[in-house]
Design goal:
By secondary structure, the chain is an alpha+beta fold. It is built from 12 helices and 11 strands. It has a 7-stranded mixed sheet with strand order 4-6-5-3-9-10-11, sandwiched between helices. Strands 1-2 form a two-stranded antiparallel sheet. A two-stranded antiparallel ribbon has the order 7-8.
C-alpha cells in the first residue's frame, strides 16, 4: 500500500517499518561503539553505504562499480574491524531480561558453597577469584587454565585457593554446579582505581571479565579479606557473607514465572 511519493520513489508502510528497523539497529551499534576508534570507522562505513545508494539512484556506473567492489567485502571487514564491539553487543543481548526468562540455572547449591568458601577464606585472609557463568560459556578463557569438571564444594574451593596450592594463582570458572577450570587467566580491566583505592590484579581481572562476558565474579582480597562482586563492569565492595548470598541469589536466580504475562512485563520494562 503506497502512502506517498518522493519524486520517482514510492513509499509504503513496509518501507517506513524497514527504514525504522535499520535506523534503530545502526543507532544501537553506534551507541555500543561510541567513544572508541571503531565508532569513527563505523560512521565512515555508513557514509559509504549512503553514497552507494545515491550512486545507484542516479545511475553513476563507474562509481557503482567501485562501490560494489567495496560492499562485496564489507561484511568480512566489518567482522574483523569490530570484533570486540560485536562481542560486547552479543553480551548485551545475552544480558537482556527477556532472554533470561528462557534460561534456567541451578545455582542454589553453587551460591551456598561459594559463600561458605568466601567466609572461610576471608577469615584466613586468602585471596579468591570465582567466575560464575550466567549465560554464554567461557571456553576460550577456561582453556588457559587447568580443566577440572568437578562438583562444586566449599572444601574444594578452599583447597584451590590455599596459597600453597599450585592452582591458587588465577581464577576458577563455575557453571551451574560444576567447577569447569582453575588457574584461569582473565583479561584485566582498564579501570585501575576504585575511589581513592588502587585495585589489585584480582579486582581488575574480575572487572575485565565482567565487561566482556555475561558473568558474575566473586573476589576475596588477600590483603584486606574483604568480599567483592563484579557484574557488568561494576564493582560492589566490602560485602558481608549474608549480603554476598543475597546479591548472588538476586543476580543469578532464574525468574520463577515463565508465563506470557511475565514475558510481557519484561518487554514493557524495555529489556
Amino acid at each position: 500500500m503506497e502512502l506517498f511519493k518522493i519524486g520517482f520513489l514510492s513509499v509504503s508502510l513496509i518501507d517506513i517499518i524497514d527504514i525504522a528497523l535499520v535506523s534503530f539497529i545502526f543507532y544501537k551499534l553506534y551507541m555500543v561503539m561510541r567513544g572508541t576508534v571503531a565508532a569513527q570507522i563505523f560512521v565512515g562505513l555508513v557514509l559509504i553505504l549512503l553514497f552507494s545508494f545515491v550512486a545507484q539512484a542516479i545511475n553513476l556506473k563507474a562509481m557503482n562499480s567501485i562501490l560494489r567492489t567495496l560492499t562485496d567485502i564489507w561484511v568480512i571487514a566489518f567482522i574483523v574491524l569490530f570484533q570486540p564491539e560485536l562481542r560486547r553487543l552479543l553480551v548485551l543481548v545475552g544480558r537482556n531480561r527477556v532472554v533470561r526468562l528462557f534460561l534456567r540455572l541451578d545455582v542454589d547449591e553453587s551460591i551456598e558453597e561459594i559463600a561458605n568458601a568466601a567466609s572461610e577464606l576471608t577469615r584466613k585472609h586468602h585471596g579468591m577469584l570465582v567466575v560464575i557463568v550466567r549465560a554464554t560459556g567461557l571456553k576460550t578463557f577456561a582453556e588457559t587454565g587447568v580443566q577440572l569438571q568437578a562438583r562444586i564444594s566449599k572444601p574444594l574451593l578452599v583447597s584451590i585457593f590455599n596459597p600453597r596450592s599450585p592452582l591458587h594463582d588465577g581464577a576458577v570458572i563455575v557453571r551451574d554446579r560444576v567447577i569447569e577450570a582453575a588457574r584461569v587467566t582473565l583479561p584485566l580491566s582498564a579501570t585501575s582505581t576504585f575511589g581513592d583505592d588502587v585495585l589489585g590484579m584480582r579486582h581488575r581481572a574480575a572487572l575485565g571479565i565482567s565487561e566482556q562476558a555475561d558473568v558474575i565474579v566473586v573476589v576475596v582480597s588477600q590483603e584486606s579479606g574483604k568480599i567483592s562482586i563484579a557484574d557488568n563492569g561494576i564493582l560492589l565492595r566490602s560485602l558481608t557473607t549474608h549480603e554476598l548470598r543475597r546479591e548472588l541469589h538476586t543476580r543469578l536466580s532464574a525468574p520463577p514465572e515463565r508465563s506470557f504475562k511475565s514475558i510481557w512485563k519484561a518487554l514493557k520494562a524495555g529489556g
